[in-house]
Request: fold
Amino acid sequence: RILQIAMATTAFLFAIAVLTGSTSLLLIYIYTVVMGTFVMAENPTKRTYMSNASGTSMIGRVIAMDMVFTYAGWAIGSNMGGLSIEFVNPSSAYFFVGFVFCINFFVLRRLHDLRSPVRNKSLGGPFVALKEGLKFARQQKAIFGGLVVVGITNFFCYPFESMLPIFANDIYKANGWQFGLLMSASAIGSL
Reply:
């Protein structure tokens, strides 16, 4: 819930920067890093909440549905963004993003809290939990192998994937709709 407010605040601040003409490439990088950090923290939190709410017998199905909805949202959202960028002021777009995160916050407030105060206090904070998680992963060959594959793939493959928008813009002169389609292509493939 806190992350939704943090993302809303970040989007509103960026919208104000765009509205006042105070943006720069550095500010775009900062915005992207901050939002990426929030999303990285929010995804495992969301999955933990859903797995606690569903119970162990349904955890696989719940995580699969989470992935389907996530990638479907990225596919549809990227195309909607690509189409609307031709007609919508960029500051209005980021104000809308902030508004959506506020709606998410109010929806999540209505859900019951599944945290265990005893378990949260016993972990010793996020860094201790991360250390314990890495220790556990190293002891489990299947988990550790999967993490190594993900790490190698992200390190060596995604730098080239992130350059696709540059190819689309500089070489093929893609418009907003084509750029949105490009951004949704991997999400469509994931479905």
